[in-house]
Amino acid sequence: MKNMTQIASRSSQLMLFTRFQMIASALVSTVFATSAMAGDLAVTSVDLTQGAQFGTTTLVGGRPTMVRVKVAVTGQTTSQINVDAVLRVYVGGQQMAGSPFFSRNGPITAPITPNVFNVNDTINFTIVAPVSTDVDFEVVLDPLNKVVESNEANNLFLLSNKVFSCRKTLDVAYVSVNYTPGGGEPVAATIEPGIGDAFMRGIYAVAELNYHRSPLGPLNWTTDINSSDTTLLSSLQTIRLTTIPAAGYARPEFIYGWLPGNPFSGNGEANGIPGDAAFGNTESTRFQRTFAHEIGHCWGRSHTSNTIATVGFDVEHHLVSPLSLGQTHATTQYDVMVAGQLTNVAWVDSGTYLDCLTDTRSQCTAFAPPGGGENPASDAQRVLQISGSYQHQIGRKPSRIELSPVNQIDLASPTADDPQGDVLLQSFAASGDLLSSVRWKSATTRESCAECANGRPHLHANSAVSILIPAAVANQELARIELRDLKSGNLLATRMRTASAPHIASLGSRMIDGVGVASHSGTGPFVELFWDATDADGDALSADILLSCDGGQSWSAMGVNQRGASMKFALSDIPVAKNGQGIVKVRVTDGLNVVDAEMPTSVGNFGPDASELKVLDEGSIAGDSQWSNSWLVNAPDIHLISPNASQSYPFGASILLHASGWDLEDQFLPNTAFTWTSSIAGAIGTGRQILVSTLNPGTHLITLRGTDSGGSFVEKSVSIIVTARVIFGADINGDGFVNGLDLSAMIANWGGTGVGDLNFDGSVGGPDLAAMLSGWTG
C-alpha cells in the first residue's frame, strides 16, 4: 500500500490534471463550435492479460502484458472517433522505465457497446512489468483533447496495487524424430522456436520459455509409431534424465519429440499425468495445439470438455503463423485440453491456465538456472528407469506389463509414492530383503488424445510405464523387481539380474562420409562410433551413448536404446568439448545389469580411417576419438519471436522485440548476447526482450543478432511499419500556433503536472520544453 505522501501526490496530480482538462476543453470548444449536447468519455475498466484473464488471475513479472482499456461513450448514439489514451505505470511508487506508454492501436473509434473480442474496441498498451507487489496504472483518456466532452473531470482512471509474481524460465527441449516409416524428419522451420512452441508461449504463464533442441542429432525411429509409442516415450525420457546438470548445463523440465506429419492415431501422447516426456505431430492445422496439449498433460492436466468461457488474448500474436489466426479467442473456443481439436478452435480455460501457474516446476527458487531446468533435488541418487508398456485388460485378457531394458540414471529423484496408485513396484536384494516399494498409477494416459467419438474417448490398449527406483539401498544392489496389481495381487511383470553382466570388449570411432546420416545441419563432419559388447548369458543388449564436454562434470545423451553395435552422427549436432576434456561413454545393459566404457575425445586433422585403439583394462580396449577440427565452431540457434513480419504500429507505441537464443556450448544465452538494430534508426538496444517506442515513421528492417561466447553469431530480420501519429500537443492554448503564450503556460506550471506535460510522464520539465521548441511556429 502507498504511504500518505504518495497518496497526496497522486491526489494533487489528479486536481492539476482536471484543471488542465477543463482549460483545454474550453479552448477546444472555442475552436470547434459544437452542440451544447456533447457526449462524454470515461474509462470503465482496465484489463491486464497475459493470455487469459479470469478476474483475479495471477500476473507474472517479466512476461509481456496487454493492458486493454475499455471506454464508455455516453450522451450520444453514435461511436466516437479519435479516442486515445496515455498509460503511466508505477512500480513501488516510481514510474517504471518506458512510462508513459502510448497506445498500440490508437486513436480508435470507440463504440457505444464495446466488445472485447474486437481488438480495436479497446485502447491497448504493451508493457513488461517486473516482479513486484505494488504496480499502479494511471490511464489519461483523450490526452490531446481531440474530443469535446460534457465532463472532462472523469478522464483519469487509476488501477492500484496490482501484483506481478515471480515465475521461473521454463526449459523445454525438443527432439526431431527421423521417422523412417513416414519419410524422415519433420520440416525444421515447423518445429523451431516461435513456431512449434507458439501456442504454448501464448497460454502458459511462465516468465520466459527456453524452448530449444536437445543437444543431440535427430532420433532415428524405424518402427511403426502406433506399436512403439511407449518405447518412444521411454527413449525421450531417457534423453532428459541422462542430462546431468553441471557447469551451466541444465536438465529440462520437459522433453518433446516431433514426428513428420501425423502418423500416430492419437495425434500425440505424454508419458504420464503429470509427466516429463511427450511427442506429437507436425500436421499444419493441429501441431501447435498438440504440443501445448501434451505439455498440459505433463503439467498434470487431464482431458477436459470445457470451452474457455472468457475472451482469450494472444499478447504477442504468436499464432499468426502459419494459420493467420486472429489475436483474440472467442469464449466458445475449446480449452486446449479438449482431446483432438485443431489449433484454430482452441485456447485455454482457467483450470489449465492455473495448472501451469501453480505447478512446482514453474515456481521461482533461490538457485534456479537462468535458462530454467531443474537442479538435482536433495534426494537425487543413482536410480534405475523402469519403463515399458502397460497392456490393459481387454475382455478376458488380463493386464500385464512388458518391460523395456532398464536404464541406469546417475542422478535423479526416485518416483514419489502415489497413495492412489494401482500398481505396486518392489525391488529386492539378492538375499531376498525388500529394498524399495512404490505405488504407481497406471491409467493416467490411457485416454487417446484423438477426438472423442459419440462423446466417448478412445482408449489406448497400452500406456507408458515410467518409474524411477533406487539402484541400491544401504549398499545393497537390487537383484529383482516385481510389479503387481494392487487390487488382485496378480504379478504384472518381473525381472531378475542375471549372473553375468555384459562385457564391452572395444570402443572406437572413425570419420565417415555421412551418406544417409540424419543431422540438423545436413552437413558434416560425420563420425561412426562403434563398440563390441557381449553377454555370457546370451541376453539381448542395448546401449545409451553419453557425452561430457567438461571432463565428466556434466553429461548429455547422444543416443539412447541403441540395439546395434555402432552409431553414426554429425559433429555439428553435439557440443564442442572444453579444453580437450571431452569424454564419450557407452553404457550397455542386458535388461538389469549395466556396464560403462569411456573414451576421451580429441580434435585434429585426421583422415577418414583415423582411430587408435588402446588397452583400457582386462582386455577391453578404447581409443582416443580423433575427430575433424572443423568441429570447432557451432553457431548459436537464434530466432526472432516478435514482432511479426509486416506488422504496423502507430508512432510512439511500445514495440516488443523478443528473441530466442540457445547454444550447444553456452546453453541459454544471456541478455547481453542479443543486439537489435533498425535500418532507419540504427542501434536500438540489447536484451532478449526489450520495448522500443522511439522508432520514427517508415518501414524498418529490424535485425536481431545473437552472439555466443566464442563470437559466432546469427542474424534474423523482420520488416515492420511505423505510421505517423501526433502524440504531443505543444499548442497548449489551442490557437493554432506554438508560441510565447504556450511557453508561458508551460513555465507557469514548471515542475508540476497537467498543463505543459507534453510527453505525459507526470512532470513538466526539459523534455517537454524540447518538444515544444521542436514544433515552434512563432
How would you describe this protein?
There is one protein chain. By secondary structure, the chain is mostly beta strands. The protein is 12% helix and 38% strand. It contains 8 helices and 48 strands. The strands form 11 sheets. Strands 31, 32, 33, 34, 35, 36, 37, 38 and 39 form a 9-stranded mixed sheet that branches. The radius of gyration is 31 Å and the shape is elongated. The protein starts with a helix and ends with a helix. 46% of the residues are buried. The N terminus is likely disordered.
Uncertain runs: 1-37, 603-624
At CATH level 2, the architecture of the largest domain is 3-Layer(aba) Sandwich
Mean pLDDT: 89
**Distance linking N and C termini:** 47 Å
Number of domain modules: 5
Beta-strand residue percentage: 35-45%
Briefly note the structural class of the backbone.
Answer: mainly beta
SS summary, helix count: 8
Total beta-strand segments = 48
CATH topology of the largest domain: Collagenase (Catalytic Domain)
Please identify the top-level CATH class of the largest domain.
Answer: Alpha Beta
Specify the biggest β-sheet.
9 strands, mixed
In CATH, the homologous superfamily of the largest domain goes by the name Collagenase (Catalytic Domain)
Taken from the alpha-carbon principal axes, the silhouette is: elongated
Taking all Cα atoms into account, the compactness measure Rg is 31 Å
Q: Name the helicity range.
A: 10-25%
